[in-house]
Fold this sequence. Notes:
Blueprint: H1 17-29, E1 32-35, H2 41-44, H3 49-55, E2 60-65, H4 80-87, H5 89-92, H6 106-131, E3 135-140, H7 141-148, H8 150-161
Amino acid sequence: MPITSGKCAVQLDLISRDGQARLWTLIRHADVLLDPYCPGILDAMGFTPDAMHAANPGLVVARLVGFPRDGPKGTQAGHDITSLAASGVLSALDRKDALPTFPVNLLADFAGGGLLCATLVLGALVQPASAGHGGVVDVNMVHGTQFVDTDRLLEMLRQKLDGLLTLHVGG
């Protein structure tokens, strides 16, 4: 089944006033807005989270980007392979005695980005019932990929430190 099955698509020209007016209409009636652009693009067009919440206080604004917004690459576009490399997980996929292979886009795009973003959006949708307002979900694929691969990264660190450091747990 295609990943887009059962979805309705709306095409808007956000450079035009008509396209922007149509987006404001959609925002007033939406539960979730997924920002599909590089960091700052929607903000520059006047679609800041504050402005959207003024139009619809219950709206959940989901912003999924490649790199941490407050980091040195925060304004750059992120793609699966660059996020995977920046997270440190790409090097963990190395196979001894074999040429490097290009991994499929499951770790950063789908798990570290999409799955984490969708999970946080679901949590934010439940929150308004008790808080009375929506929220902003900020996800970057670098940290998301590190999160979904925590066990592998911890094992790599343990192996690298083995013999250099003794860890004591408990009393």
